[in-house]
Automatic annotation (TrEMBL):
Gene3D superfamilies found in the cross-reference section: 3.40.50.1100
Alphabetized GO MF terms: cysteine synthase activity
Record-linked InterPro entries: Cys_synth, Cys_Synth/Cystath_Beta-Synth, CysM, P-phosphate_BS, TrpB-like_PALP, TrpB-like_PALP_sf
PANTHER family cross-referenced by the UniProt entry: CYSTATHIONINE BETA-SYNTHASE
Reaction catalyzed: O-acetyl-L-serine + hydrogen sulfide = L-cysteine + acetate
Name used for this protein in its record: Cysteine synthase
Originating species: Sphingobacterium litopenaei
Length: 290
């Protein structure tokens, strides 16, 4: 028995069967909403804080700051509370109210600003001027290393090494980078597929970054293919996952699933795993399920 952070990881891998008819193509969802703070971001949040403590960069009682679109912030808020650290989370004002309330429930301060780029600039400037420690998930190798250590090995184990395609939304790109490193280390023929919004779309948790804000941890050579996803397609697939498969997740998961189906329709056989990033109850105040 341990504390709640010991419950992070080892999330279920469940088969999705309602959307295609080829018995030689298997689709599985990695249910990251089953993590204690409700998303795939529990993994890098824990690894970023724990690794910084081990290096001596931070200690109990220190002040931290991080820019987030939501899920990383919630996970950091939970973990910072356990390590008794003060945390300020800087988030776009368009974020759902559930996110802010959850972060505050864990004891964190929330600052709402115009958009994600402004949030990132604010956090970096405050860290530089006031000496607050910034975790900087966009440039921190501890982000993707969490998936090298945990998510990738779990997927390899739970598919008995039979995975042929891995599909993930791309935000900070930590999830796709870490899983690519591990899975291609096991079998270089595994195809790594990322998804991003189309130019005119806005999908929470997936970004099409301006060049100057592209995460420093991103390495394009580790992604075999990027699929553009329309906002409405992401919404539709999130709704269908809930109604047909009982998988209640957010719009970024809908986007990843849309890309997954595109891949499934193109291949004759294979085992596709996509990341179901979080839980749908994080979006109930939006019109995602309205």
């Amino acid at each position: 028995m341990g504390n709640i952070i010991d419950a992070i990881g080892n999330t279920p891998l469940v088969e999705i069967t309602s959307f295609h008819n080829n018995p030689k193509v298997k689709i599985y969802a990695k249910l990251e909403g089953n993590n204690p703070a409700g998303s795939v971001k529990d993994r890098p949040a824990l690894n970023m804080i724990r690794s910084a403590i081990e290096r001596g960069d931070i200690k109990k009682g220190d002040k931290l700051i991080e820019a987030t679109s939501g899920n990383t912030g919630i996970a950091l808020a939970m973990i910072a509370s356990i390590y008794e650290m003060e945390l300020e989370l800087v988030m776009p004002s368009s974020s759902t109210r559930e996110r802010t309330l959850t972060m505050e429930a864990f004891g964190s301060k929330v600052t709402l600003l115009e958009n994600m780029e402004v949030c990132r600039d604010y956090a970096e400037e405050k860290a530089a001027k006031e000496g607050v420690f910034i975790l900087n998930q966009f440039a921190n190798p501890d982000n993707y290393e969490a998936h090298v250590k945990t998510t990738g090995p779990e997927i390899w184990r739970d598919t008995a090494g039979k995975i042929t395609h891995f599909v993930s939304a791309m935000g900070t790109t930590g999830t796709i980078m870490g899983n690519s490193i591990f899975l291609k280390g096991q079998n270089p023929n595994i195809q790594i597929v990322g998804c991003q919004p189309t130019e005119e779309s806005s999908i929470p948790g997936i970004r099409r970054w301006p060049k100057e804000y592209l995460p420093k941890i991103f390495d394009a050579s580790k992604v075999d293919r990027v699929i553009d996803v329309d906002q409405q397609d992401a919404i539709d697939k999130a709704r269908l996952l809930a109604k047909k498969e009982g998988v209640f997740a957010g719009m970024s998961t809908g986007g990843a699933f849309h890309a997954t189906l595109q891949v499934a329709n193109e291949i004759e056989e294979g085992v596709i795993v996509f990341i179901a990033c979080d839980r749908g109850d994080r979006y109930l105040s939006s019109d995602l399920f309205g």
